Predict the structure of ATP-grasp domain-containing protein.
Amino acid sequence: MKLARPDVFHPRIVLAGCAALPEGDGDDAGLLIALRNRGLHASWLPWDDPATRDADLVLLRATWDYTERLDEFLAWTRSVSHLINPAPVVEWNVDKHYLDDLHRSGVPVVPTGYFAVGEQVSVPDGEVVVKPAVAAGSTGAQRFVDASAALAHAAVLHATGRAVLVQPYDPRIADGETALVFLGGKESHAFTKGPILPPAGESPEFEETGTYARESLSPADPDDEVWEVGRAAVDAVIRLFDLAPEDLVYARVDVIGGPEDPRLLELELIEPGLGFRQLGSAARGTAERRFAVAVEDALQRLGLGPLSHKGL
């Protein structure tokens, strides 16, 4: 590709997908154009393509098979020149034990029991959700009303070397989760994710590649009490890793409940879907532009701007 200004440094930017979805699920389709409108040229590659190591900047966008090759994936995150979000944040966020850190930081989270491999699992009374601590796309997550069945599922997960989370089932999930999107450390937009887990004892339905559970998404306009949970979670990460707010180029905070006792269910800092398709055309263009500006700002902080030393 011939560039208009060969005297200006043009960083090589990769949006990282995976072999099954090398260009994601289509939600990020406008990002290449938004980046190009900022003078930034990016292309998609599966994360395990060796060419990613030649990139100046890699953006994690659809690396949804990483849980199957976790050690390899984490080693790769440390091998690329610059990663968004940063590799230490990614390594922390792959294991849902991070919920304990957020809870200790004062973020209201869904009550969660964490059981390492070999540790005896206990199940509270009532309906529960049992899931692996390292998973994406709801893989391995199930609802149970019978404690013995829940323990049996936990035993299966332990037998495959996976730590286990046990959470009481919150009936408010029937109304869906509110996904709060932050770009460059600031509130951007929100959308609703319909219930994913089917009734107790059944497994969720996965899309055709088997990479993630099917989701029903729709626009959302959350109350400020819900946004406050998102702000608290993002602020906690910033403090934990001594980051500037803009260092989190993107974040998605999944919350259940409305203004009365909203609770964080998950914090997605690795490769979350950002719900651009749930926005109207004008709002989508604004959000994609915010994403591109956040990337542009990150390049400047990393010394990879158009007038950086690499371009001189």
User: Anything to note?
Assistant: The radius of gyration is 20 Å. The helical segments are 31-37, 70-79, 87-93, 98-104, 147-159, 224-240, 281-301. Residues 281-301 form the longest helix (21 residues). The longest strand covers residues 186-193.
